[in-house]
Amino acid sequence: MARRLIVRKTGAFRGTIRPPSDKSLTHRAYMFAALSRRESDDFIPAVDGPGVVGGIQIPCPSTSIINYPLNGEDCESTLNCLVTLGAEVRRISATQVHITPPIRWVTEPVVLDCGNSGTTMRLLSGILAGIEGIDATIIGDESLSRRPMGRITKPLQEMGADITGDTAPVRIRGKALRAIQYQSPVASAQVKSAVLLAGLRTDGRTTVTEPALSRDHTERMFTALGIDLDTQENSISVNGGQQWNSFEFTVPGDISSAAFFMVASLLHPQSEVTFRELGVNPSRTGVLDLFAKMFPDDSVFELKDTHEELGEPVATVIIGAPKILPAFEIAGEMVPALIDEIPILAVLATQCHGTTVIRDAQELRVKETDRIAVVTKNLKQMGADITATDDGMIINGPTPLHGTTVDSSGDHRIGMSFAIAGTIATGETIIENVDSIRTSYPEFVRHLTELSGFVPEVIE
Ligand code: S3P
Questions:
Q1: pLDDT at residue 159 above 60?
Q2: Residue 38 predicted with pLDDT over 90
Q3: Ligand 1, closest atom to CA 187?
Q4: How high is the pLDDT of residue 460?
Q5: Looking at residues 295-308, what average pLDDT do you find?
Q6: Is 339 a pocket residue for ligand 1 (Cβ < 6 Å)?
Q7: For a pocket test of ligand 1, which of 28, 119, 127, 147 has the largest count of ligand atoms closer than 8 A to its C-beta?
Q8: What's the confidence (pLDDT) of residue 59?
Q9: Which of 31, 217, 339 to mutate to test the pocket of ligand 1 (most atoms within 8 A of CB)?
C-alpha cells in the first residue's frame, strides 16, 4: 500500500544539511567503475603514474571506490543490473561501495530490471549494445515502461546495434558497432551518454550534437578519467577504443534534491538553509542562475568552499529568504539546466508577483509522469491560478494555497513538490503515493523536520 504524507503550514526553514548525493553522478560512477580496466588487462604506466613504486610497474587496481553514493532506489537498480551482468559489488558501509568490473560479461540471457530509472535503462542500453555476447531484456516499472526508448534505440540501430523497443522492454544482443555522427532531436543527457558510451566500443569517431547543452556529467567524468573528448559548443566527439583505470569518487549532493528546500527557504520569511557539498556543475545550476536573475539586488544565495571532484564543481551553498518574490520566465536553453526542478519552481511561482511563464519544456511530458498535467491539476486543486500549455505552464500570482488531497502519480519530484506546497497552505495537505520519494531522496521527511521543526505524518 502506497504511503501518504500529511503536511501542515510551517514556519521558517533554518539549518544545514548535506543533501542526498547526486543521482546522475551515482549512476555514472557505478557504470563507469564496472567498465574500467581489470587488473589483468593493464599496467599503470612506468613513468609519471600514480602506481609507480620505486620505478617498478604495478598492475592497476581493478576496484573503484565510490564514497557517498545515493542509496535511493534508482541507483540501487543500476547496481543490481551491474551485478547481474557480472560486476563485483561490495557494500562496505552505507557511505562506501566498491565495484570491480566483470572478469567476463554474462553471456546467458538476462533480464535487467531498471525499476523507475530512465537513466539506468538508457545508459545501460548504450553500454550493452556493443558488448558481444550480451543477450539482455531490459525492463522497468509501469511508469518507465511508458517512457520513450526510441530516442536511444534509433541512434544505436544506426550504429549497427541489434536493439529493439520504442518502449520497454528493450531487447539487446550485443555486437560490433560503427561510429556515427548523430544529431539528437532532444537535449537529453541520457541520449547523449548512451551514444557516447556505445561510441567507445567502435573503431571510429562518434559525434553527438544536441539542440541545447544537456547536463555534461558524462563528458566531465570521461575527461577526468583520461578519455580524450572534443567538445565544440553542443557537439561532443569521442574516438572508440579508449579505456580507463579504476578510480575513487566522492559523490557530491544533488542540486535537484536541494531545490525543494531552496524553494522552501525562498517561500518562508526568516529562512536560511546551508547545503554542504552540493554539486554546482554549471549544466545543472539553472535554478541558481534563475534566482540570480529574479533577485538582482538582493543576494539570496552565496557559494563558498568551491572545489572539484572528478571534474565536477562542488560548493557549500547558502540560501536565504528574499524581501519580495517576482514572477519569472523559463525558456529556451535554460530549460535543460533546471528541467527536474520545474515542478517545485511551479509551486514557487504561485507565490510570485505577476505572471510566470514556463515554455520549451515539453520534455516534462515524458518524465516519470506527465509533469505538466500533474503539476497543473494539483496546483489548481490547491487554489492556484495556473494553465497548462503544450510545452509548459502559465501561472499568475500570488494566490494563497489551501490544503487538500493531491496525488503524486508515483512521481518522486511531484510528491516532494507538494510536500513543500503543503508548508505554505492553510489546513492539511495530504499527498498520496509518496513511496516513490525513496527513488531519489530517502531522507526527505527527516530533512523537512530538521529544517522546519515540523513532523509530517506518514501513513502506510
Ligand atoms: C538525467 C538526465 C535528464 C534528467 C534525469 C537524469 C541523467 O533526463 O531529467 O533526471 O542522469 O542523464 P534527460 O536526459 O532525458 O533529459
A1: yes
A2: no
A3: 16
A4: 82
A5: 92
A6: yes
A7: 119
A8: 56
A9: 339
Tell me how many helices (H) and strands (E) the chain has.
13, 24
Q: How far is the CA of 185 from the centre of ligand 1 (A)?
A: 15
Q: Is the distance from the beta carbon of residue 439 to the nearest atom of ligand 1 less than 6 Å?
A: no
Q: Which residue has the higher pLDDT, 50 or 420?
A: 420
Q: In angstroms, what is the span from residue 177 Cα to ligand 1's centroid?
A: 24
Residue 247 is predicted with a pLDDT of 96
Q: So what's the pLDDT on residue 39?
A: 66
Q: What is the CA(270)–ligand 1 centre distance, in A?
A: 34
Q: Is the CB of 210 under 6 A from ligand 1?
A: no
pLDDT score at 299: 81
Of 343, 337, 323, 327, nearest in space to 266 by CA: 323
Residue nearest atom 5 of ligand 1, based on CA coordinates: 119
Flag whether the pTM goes above 0.90: yes
Cβ(242)–Cβ(57) under 8 Å? no
> What type of residue sits at position 312?
E
Instruction: Give yes or no on whether 4-22+252-459 and 23-250 have one common fold.
Output: yes
Domain locations in the chain as residue ranges: 4-22+252-459, 23-250
| Contact status, residue 115 vs residue 141, Cβ threshold 8 Å | yes
Q: How far is CA 51 from CA 43, 44, 48, 54, in A?
A: 9, 6, 9, 10
Handedness of CA 63, 94, 369, 420 (dihedral sign): negative
Whether the CA torsion 445, 28, 76, 136 is positive or negative: it is positive
To the query of whether residue 340 is one of the catalytic residues in this protein, the response is yes
Query: What band does 10 get if pLDDT is binned at 50, 70 and 90?
Result: very high
Parallel, antiparallel, or unpaired for β 312-320 and 301-309? antiparallel
- Per CATH, the number for 23-250 is 3.65.10.10
Q: What is the pLDDT of residues 402-418, one digit of tens each?
A: 999 999 999 999 999 99
Kindly state if the Cβ of 340 falls inside 6 Å of ligand 1: yes
Q: Which of 113, 254, 340, 411 is catalytic?
A: 340
H-only helix segments in 404-443: 412-422
Rounded to a whole number, what is the distance in angstroms from the first to the last CA of the chain? 7
Pick the CATH number of 4-22+252-459 from 3.40.50.300, 3.30.70.920, 3.40.50.1360, 3.65.10.10: 3.65.10.10
